[in-house]
Amino acid sequence: xxxxxxxxxxxxxxxxxxxxxxxxxxxxxxxxxxxxxxxxxxxxxxxxxxxxxxxxxxxxxxxxxxxxxxxxxxxxxxxxxxxxxxxxxxxxxxxxxxxxxxxxxxxxxxxxxxxxxxxxxxxxxxxxxxxxxxxxxxxxxxxxxxxxxxxxxxxxxxxxxxxxxxxxxxxxxxxxxxxxxxxxxxxxxxxxxxxxxxxxxxxxxxxxxxxxxx
Length: 214
Prior knowledge:
This protein is of the alpha+beta class. The protein has 2 domains: 7-63; 85-200, no CATH class. It contains 8 helices and 5 strands. It has helices at 7-13, 21-38, 46-62, 66-82, 85-92, 98-118, 183-187, 189-200; strands at 126-131, 140-145, 148-152, 162-166, 179-181. The chain has a 5-stranded antiparallel sheet with strand order 1-2-3-4-5. The longest helix is centred in the middle third of the chain and has 21 residues, at 98-118.
């Protein structure tokens, strides 16, 4: 196999075709590969440094100035803080992204545990499990109790990410009629608990528990 280990120098001297951030990043990555092929250090390579400086120049001309960028980053962080992680994952999807899928399973388990507490389900009278599925799907996180089956998934076949129905024990995987809720409703687990209890006829909430008005 032959390597064109000199190409990075020619490109660094004439980067006229590198007019986007994506193109510049690709050139820097290719230059790093050339360095490995030539057995040269990456950090001190003059072609890599020139290409990195060109990237900075392109970014300066295509984006707002530094103070404006810092403001935009701060605004983005504030928006992320206002948007729960489960809602973000539901919006973007987790298929073919192992890290996002693993995060979804963890967050959904926590959310279902809070829902079980809001429903005053006794420990030992329900379980929470994960059906991971293949890489192209989110899998399902399931809360299964003596009277409630609740399943959370992303990109399912129903009109929402949360399916819930009344069941007759933890061996009942069919249950009664399906009900649906959006992922955003799982964030307010107390309100969702009241809705579930009302719609499927659970009697597990105490009288002091607020209930939704039909």
